[in-house]
Write a structure and sequence with these properties.
By secondary structure, the protein is an alpha/beta fold. 30% of the residues lie in helices and 23% in strands.
C-alpha cells in the first residue's frame, strides 16, 4: 500500500538498500515515529548486518513474509520530505524492472553522494577547510617529492579557490585525515564554518542572433506543445543553430514557471554550451555531473528540487534530477553512445528522458546532426515529429568532403602530402586547422621487425599502446602499464612504433610547422582540472592555430576560425563487427567535418583512407547522412537487428575460460523452458574474450516486440541468481545494449 498508514499496528516498511540484491528489505518503524512521516521516497537509517545503512522507503505494508521475531526495527527517519518524489520514485522503480537491475542500486544512483551518506537534504552549515595566509604561500610543487600527499591537498584546495567542505577532501583517498592533521599543525590550513553563499541574481540576458525561418518554426512547434507530451527529433546539420532553438524553448518554459532539463554527452567537453545558457537566458542554472565535488553537486540538487534553478544542465545521470516543475526535456547530440551507461545500472538517459516527458506531460527535444537510427525510425513510424534545420545561418555553408587515397599518396607518420599542403594553404591565410584521430597515445603498437614480437597486454587480448611522453606502454582497456623495453625481449632487436596516435601526430606537426603552436586535446592532455579550458582558450584566442585530438573535439565545440578539418584515419570503423560500427563511423565523420567553415569563412574537409571506394564512405559522401541512414535501416531490417527487433545481452566473466560459458549454457537451458517467442543466440566468447585478466562470454536474446522479451527476463533473472554456476562468475543483464562486445 503506497502512502503513509494511519494505523501503525503491524506496519512493515519496505526499504531499498544499496546492495546487489533484487528485493526490498522489511523493517519495523522506528520507536515513537509519527505515521505521517512514513512517506515513500524518504531516507531511513537502518541496521544492516553489523553496519548501519541509509535506505529509501519504497512502500509500507501490513504484513511481511518474515516472522515477526525476525524483523529488525529501523533506527531513525532522516527526512521530513521525500528526497525522491512520487513521480521520480515511480520512474526509478519502472527502470529497475525494465533494465533488470537491483532496486536499491537504482534508487541510490539517483541521489548525490552526500545524500547517500545521510547528509540533510536541506541547507545547513557544514565544516569547511581553507588555506591560511601561510599555506597560500607554500609552493606545492616544491614539497611534492618529500610530501606528495600534502602537495596534493594544497593543490586540491587551490583548485577550489582556497576552500572546500571538509568532506570533499575524501576524494583524495588514502590517509587524507592524517594529511589534513599535518597541514593543520603547520598552520597551512584552518577550520571554519562553511555557510552556503546567497545566490546571486543572474546577469541580464544577452540578446541572441535573429532566428532563421527554420529555427523560428522549430521553436514555435516546441513552445506550442508546452504542457503536453510531444517528442521531437530536431534534425539539423552541424552549425545550423540547434542550441538557439534550445535557448528560446527554455526561455518560453521558464516564462511559464517551468524547468528545462538539458542533457549533454559530457559536461567537461561543453563549457561553451554552459556559458551560452548562462549569458543568453539570464536565468538561474544548476549543473549536475559526476565531476563536481560532493558539496557542489548537493547544492545543485537542492536548487533543482526547490525550483530555484530554471535550467538544469548535466550529463547522463542528470536524468534523475529532482525537478519540481518539469516543462521541457532536451537531449543534445542524442545519438551519442555516452547516454547509455555501460556498467552497473545500464540505463539509457535518452530513452528515460522520453519516458519522463511522457509521464510529466512535457515536450522532449532530441537534437542531432546525425540522429540515431532508432530516432529516425521513430519518426518514420509516427512516434516522433521531425523538425528540420537544413542550413547554417547567414553565409556559412557545410564544407565539402574530399577523400585522400593513402594507397596513392605518401604519408609522413599518418599525414599525407595533400593534407600537409592544404594545411599550409589554410594557415597562410590566417586560419586554423583541426586534425582528428580517435586514437590517443604515441602509437597503437610496439613491433619487432626481427621476429615479429608485438607488445601485448598480459591481462587483455589487446596490444599495449606506446605513450612516449611518459616512457610507458599502456593498455587502453584495463589500464595496465609497463616500462618501454630498449630492445625486443625475444630476439634483442630494435623495437619500432607502428601506427599513429595523437601524440605522434603532434610531434610530426611540430616538425612540419615549427612556427605554428599546436594544441592537443585528448584524455591524456586534459587530466588536470582546468586543462581543457586552457587549451580551448588558446584556440579561441588564436594563440594556437593547429588543433589535434580525439572524439573530444567533435562534441559541442564551435571554432569559428577553423577552415580545414583533416580526418587522419577514417578506416577504423569500416570493418567493425558491432552492429552499430558503420552508424558510429558515419556520425563521427560528419560531426568532426562540421567543425569546419562554421562562420563566414568557407571550409573544407580532407578524409584520408586506404579504402576511399568503400560503399559506406561513398554512400555517405554522395547521399549525405539521410541517404546513409535510409540504406542502413534497410540493412538492419533485412538482418532483423534493432530498431526492428529488441535485444538483451547476458554477459558473464570469470578468471577461467569455461566458467562463463558453463553458466551461460545453463542460463540458456532455463530460458528455453519458458517457450516464449524469443530467439537465443549463443553463448559465445566476447569479441575481446580476455579483459583485465578475466574471460568473458555472452548470450544474446532477440525478440520482435518488447513484451515477450520482458516477460522472459523478469522471472529468468530471478532464477539466474539462484543457479549454482552463477556463484562462479560475475554476470549482468544489458537491456537494449549499445554495443555487442
Amino acid at each position: 500500500t503506497h502512502g503513509a498508514l494511519r494505523d501503525r499496528t503491524n506496519m512493515v516498511l519496505k526499504i531499498a538498500l544499496n546492495a546487489p540484491l533484487r528485493r526490498l528489505f522489511d523493517y519495523l518503524p522506528p520507536h515513537d515515529c509519527p505515521p505521517g512521516r512514513l512517506r515513500p521516497g524518504i531516507r531511513i537509517l537502518v541496521p544492516f548486518g553489523s553496519r548501519r545503512q541509509v535506505g529509501i522507503l519504497v512502500e509500507t505494508a501490513t504484513a511481511s513474509e518474515l516472522p515477526a521475531n525476525r524483523l529488525r526495527r529501523a533506527l531513525s527517519i532522516i527526512d521530513d520530505d521525500p528526497v525522491l518524489d512520487e513521480d521520480l520514485l515511480e520512474l526509478l522503480c519502472w527502470a529497475s524492472r525494465y533494465y533488470q537491475h537491483p532496486i536499491g542500486e537504482v534508487l541510490t544512483a539517483a541521489l548525490p553522494t552526500a545524500l547517500r551518506k545521510g547528509r540533510p537534504s536541506a541547507e545547513e552549515p557544514a565544516a569547511g577547510i581553507r588555506l591560511t595566509a601561510l599555506g597560500s604561500g607554500i609552493d606545492s610543487d616544491a614539497i611534492s617529492r618529500r610530501s606528495p600527499a600534502q602537495s596534493r591537498m594544497l593543490k586540491f584546495l587551490r583548485e577550489r579557490e582556497g576552500s572546500c567542505e571538509a568532506t570533499d577532501l575524501a576524494a583524495l583517498g588514502g590517509s587524507w585525515r592524517d594529511t589534513l592533521k599535518r597541514l593543520r599543525n603547520k598552520n597551512w590550513v584552518e577550520d571554519f564554518e562553511w555557510e552556503w553563499a546567497p545566490r546571486q541574481a543572474p546577469a541580464a540576458a544577452i540578446p541572441g542572433p535573429q532566428l532563421t525561418a527554420a529555427q523560428h518554426e522549430a521553436v514555435r512547434s516546441i513552445t506550442d506543445s508546452l504542457g503536453q507530451f510531444s517528442p521531437y527529433l530536431l534534425f539539423g546539420v552541424t552549425g545550423s543553430g540547434k542550441t538557439e532553438v534550445y535557448l528560446e524553448a527554455a526561455r518560453a518554459a521558464a516564462a511559464r514557471g517551468g524547468q528545462t532539463l538539458v542533457l549533454v554527452p559530457e559536461i567537461g567537453l561543453t563549457p561553451q554550451l554552459v556559458d551560452r545558457f548562462r549569458q543568453r537566458l539570464g536565468l538561474p542554472m544548476a549543473l549536475l555531473h559526476s565531476g563536481l565535488p560532493d558539496s557542489q553537486r548537493l547544492a545543485a540538487w537542492r536548487d533543482t528540487r526547490s525550483g530555484a534553478a530554471a535550467v538544469i544542465l548535466g550529463t547522463r545521470s542528470a536524468i534523475f534530477a529532482p525537478l519540481s516543475n518539469p516543462a521541457l526535456m532536451v537531449v543534445d547530440e542524442e545519438h551519442d553512445a555516452s547516454f547509455k551507461q555501460q556498467d552497473g545500472f545500464r540505463y539509457s538517459a535518452r530513452d528515460l528522458a522520453v519516458l519522463r516527458g511522457r509521464r510529466g506531460n512535457a515536450p522532449v527535444v532530441l537534437g542531432s546532426a546525425t540522429p540515431s537510427l532508432e530516432s529516425i525510425y521513430n519518426v518514420r513510424e509516427g512516434r516522433y515529429t521531425q523538425l528540420e534545420l537544413p542550413h547554417r545561418p547567414g553565409s556559412a555553408v557545410a564544407p565539402p568532403i574530399r577523400t585522400v587515397d593513402l594507397k596513392h599518396h605518401a604519408a609522413t607518420n599518418g599525414l599525407s602530402t595533400p593534407l600537409v599542403f592544404a594545411m599550409k594553404q589554410h594557415l597562410d591565410r590566417g586560419n586554423q586547422v583541426l586534425l582528428y584521430l580517435n586514437r590517443r597515445g604515441y602509437a597503437p603498437a610496439l613491433f619487432c621487425g626481427g621476429c615479429g614480437w608485438i607488445a601485448a597486454c598480459r591481462r587483455c587480448d589487446a596490444h599495449m599502446t606506446l605513450h612516449r611522453e611518459a616512457s610507458q606502454l599502456r593498455c587502453h582497456h584495463c589500464g595496465a602499464s609497463a616500462a618501454v623495453a630498449a630492445t625486443c625481449p625475444e630476439c634483442a632487436a630494435d623495437l619500432h612504433p607502428v601506427g599513429e596516435g595523437t601524440q605522434r601526430i603532434e610531434e610530426t606537426l611540430a616538425r612540419l610547422f615549427p612556427d605554428e603552436p599546436v594544441v592537443r586535446i585528448d584524455r591524456d592532455s586534459v587530466q588536470r582540472r582546468g586543462a581543457l579550458e586552457e587549451r580551448l582558450e588558446a584556440v579561441h584566442s588564436g594563440a594556437a592555430r593547429i588543433l589535434v585530438g580525439t572524439q573530444m573535439l567533435t562534441k559541442g565545440h564551435d571554432f569559428p576560425n577553423v577552415t580545414l578539418v583533416g580526418i587522419v584515419n577514417a578506416d577504423q570503423g569500416l570493418f567493425g563487427t558491432d552492429l552499430r560500427a558503420s552508424e558510429r563511423l558515419a556520425q563521427t565523420i560528419l560531426q568532426v567535418a562540421g567543425r569546419a567553415g562554421r562562420a563566414d569563412k568557407p571550409g573544407e574537409v580532407l578524409l584520408q583512407s586506404q579504402y576511399p571506394d568503400h560503399p559506406l564512405l561513398q554512400r555517405l559522401l554522395t547521399t549525405g547522412y539521410r541517404g546513409f541512414a535510409e540504406a542502413a535501416l534497410s540493412e538492419r531490417e533485412a538482418a532483423a537487428w534493432p530498431p526492428f527487433t529488441y535485444l538483451a545481452l547476458l554477459r558473464a566473466e570469470a578468471s577461467t575460460m569455461e566458467a562463463p560459458l558453463n553458466f551461460l549454457r545453463a542460463a540458456r537451458a532455463k530460458a528455453e523452458q519458458f517457450a516464449l517467442p524469443v530467439t537465443l543466440l549463443g553463448p559465445a566468447p566476447a569479441p575481446m574474450q580476455r579483459r583485465a585478466g578475466r574471460f568473458r562470454a555472452q548470450l544474446l536474446l532477440q525478440a520482435d516486440t518488447r513484451g515477450p522479451l520482458q516477460s522472459l527476463l523478469r522471472p529468468w533473472v530471478e532464477q539466474l541468481a539462484e543457479m549454482q554456476s552463477a556463484k562462479k562468475v560475475r554476470w549482468a543483464v544489458d537491456v537494449d545494449p549499445g554495443e555487442l562486445f
